[in-house]
Amino acid sequence: MSLRRRRLLKSASVVVTGAIAGCSVASNDAPDTTDDPRATGTTGAPDYGPLRFHADIVEQASPDAPASAAFRIENAGSTDVVTRPGSHGAAPFEYLEPLAGDPGEFLLLPTSTSRVQLRRGEPTRRDGCWRIIDADDGTAYRSRISTSVPTAVPAGASHTVRHEVYYRGPTDGCPTPGEYRTDVTVEYGRDDGDGSVELPTQRELTCLLRVDSEGEHSLSLS
């Protein structure tokens, strides 16, 4: 971590008030925002001053497609906010570490960005579940751009990233009921004038994916 970044993390955070709900679907590489107040079905919404963080399974897996997850940053304040990942490249919630459990893990692949890509492994449906199969030349992995991409979330709007959900684990069946989790860090603050984050606040979140006895998925942030 650079000296400049350490100094920024020690700075004061932006504090604003207000409340509004919103949800939308990411499109291409541009920040996706909306002020539509009709969003429903989200779970796990930590509230940190101006921002609220949501995660949900919006579509269960079917024979035609894997499960679909949505991560949403909601700006409930009256001031525009700029966000970025706390420790990884790409934009907020575009790259997430594998959600680890016992046995195996889940990999999330964003559906509308070229900044995160599956570089090794094959998405496929096998034995009734969608999974990533390791490649002949090694373990499946995803690449991401090396720089952190600031993403603006205007006041009263939200930014949403959609993912496809794939299992990677033992090949003799689908994931057993259980919990799979990973940690996510998000920084946010005001725009310093060139699209970067000034005076950032850092938030540590836990992303939890649950698989029930029927194979249904649920997702939350806390």
Written account of the structure:
3% of the residues lie in helices and 46% in strands. The chain has one helix spanning 3-9; strands at 33-34, 47-48, 51-59, 67-75, 81-85, 99-100, 105-110, 116-120, 122-126, 129-133, 141-144, 151-153, 158-168, 178-191, 197-211, 217-221. The chain has one domain: Sandwich (Immunoglobulin-like), CATH 2.60.40. With 222 residues, it is mainly beta. The strands form four sheets. Strands 1, 2, 3, 4, 6, 7 and 13 form a seven-stranded antiparallel sheet that branches. A five-stranded antiparallel sheet has the order 12-5-14-15-16, with no helix packed on it. Strands 8-11 form a two-stranded antiparallel sheet. The longest helix has 7 residues, at 3-9. The radius of gyration is 18 Å and the shape is globular. The chain contains one helix and 16 strands. Residues 25-48 are annotated as: Disordered.
